[in-house]
Amino acid sequence: MSEPTVLPRRIAMISLHTSPLEQPGSGDAGGMNVYVRHLALALGELGIGVDVFVRGAAEPRAVEMAPGVFCHEVPAGPPGKLSKEDLADHLEEAARAILEYATGLGPYDAIHSHYWLSGVVGLRLADAWGVPMVHTMHTMGKVKKLSAQTEESAARIHAELLLCREADRLTANTPAEVQELVDLYGAEPEIVDVVEPGVDLSCFHPGVCEQRQGPVGSLRVVFAGRLQKLKGPQILVRALGILARERPELDVKLSIIGARSGAKELNLQKLVESEGVEHLVRFSLPMPAEHLAKAFRCADVVAVPSYSESFGLVALEAQACGTPVLAHRVGGLPHALRHGRTGILIDGAEPASWAAALAMLATDPALRHLLGTQAAVFAAGHGWEQTANAAITSYRRAMDRCAALASGTTPAA
Fold first, then answer.
1. What would the pLDDT profile of 43-65 be if each residue is shown by its tens digit?
2. Are 121 and 94 in contact (CB under 8 A)?
3. Is the Cβ–Cβ distance between 236 and 327 less than 8 Å?
4. How far apart are CA 329 and CA 323, in angstroms?
5. Residue partners of 273: CB distance under 8 A and separation at least 6
6. Can you give the pTM of this predicted structure?
């Protein structure tokens, strides 16, 4: 692969359904919010201007996130919040609104769209502006159908197939995701770049927490994320119920940080009551990053039981705090942590397997300490600057391809 030659000066990012200004952990706000926000800020630190376009419900407004980095809320569709499913019916309207609003902004060297809804709009903008487009899936409908047995719309699958054909470049979080794009969507491997997510090391870092000094048999578990079945918090509650019945000598408590999300909400409180573990579970609303980091530092282990996860930013953030991770061996999670070195990967979503792993960690504080120490070292090499530099390489390759096509020459791989 030839090295790109053109340096981008300004990027238009499209993140329609979720804003980098929103609090992760509620509604449709999650790891993608963190990704878009910190990638934009890291690009700004490197001298590249960024305009992030999101769907707003009222009047247009611009918020300066950092010098040269702006979030623009552009109205599209009916007033009020829209679910991802409903927003899919207003993509052409969103494209027209951004085209009208962005008059006088730019010019842009490339578009970077996030998630399939934004990708559909990004293709329209790329055609209108005559610039290349890089697309990041974040999650994929076919992968979710296979791993989590979810129902995904035909419109989504069609759009993702289109994006794999029409985007100038695709970025994937891990080599495993590259393979999914190739195997499930027929993407050409030579147009896919691996751009690993990062972690805010100024916020997520090791620190002292006296609550960690519990006796052998004690374990403080934290789950952080949207409260939906796909994220798997119900697996932890059922595992806790098993431990309460079968290993009553253990003192395992679970802190659940997040809010209900999605069309099919998960009633965790009812499940907690049916398992008889009300005294072992504490619920907290989504919290700012600095408070979340403190919660991670005071945990003995952070659990990520997702059925599908393109990467798993929570896993990386927890490790950066010096806390080991217990995660489902799916998607990007085997890449986001090192099994047996910085955490433990579990095959399957059976509560009994998770209960056994929690019991093992509860009775082996020395192992937890070793995993946590090695986790902090591993995560320290994953700052957002590395993510930004990898994204810039992808932008430059897309720009070179666009220039080659415009001149009638064969684009380099």
1. 999 999 999 999 987 789 999 99
2. yes
3. no
4. 18
5. none
6. 0.86
